[in-house]
Amino acid sequence: MSVLSALKLVAAKQQRVTDPTQLRRAKLIGKLDEQIQLALAQAAGASYTPTRTKRVKDAEGNVSTVEASRRVRPWWWAVDGGKVCVAIRYGNRVMELAKGKTAVEVTPSALAETLAVLREAVAGGELDAQIEAVSATVAKRFQRGGSR
Fold this sequence. Notes:
With 148 residues, the chain is an alpha+beta fold. The chain has helices spanning 20-43, 111-123, 128-143, and strands at residues 51-57, 63-69, 76-79, 83-86, 89-90, 93-94, 104-106. It contains three helices and seven strands, in the order αβββββββαα.
């Protein structure tokens, strides 16, 4: 008796297709996580600089991997009255949260909590229609041959 005869063999193929909505949601959640880290660092008086690995070639043609810091731009800005407005960006576009509303006004102390609430809303699928709308405008621009 062979070893393989003891196993149940089937003809199966692994599916690698993921729902585009899930991919967009995950992308936005990752960016919101960065914004939360940036807000927490600013509240603590520290700086937040994430790193990425990048391959560089020296003059002799040798390729090496180095870590480089990358800049994260905050999605919030100060407004009158000591408050800040937070806008969610998908790619280089500002997402409309409600009809004609693109930002949330909060106090600086509640910035990280507000970003966490927005993250939960994205994870829960509450902003899928808005993500799809912004994603469609970006896709149309690339189809026309425009740049970012």
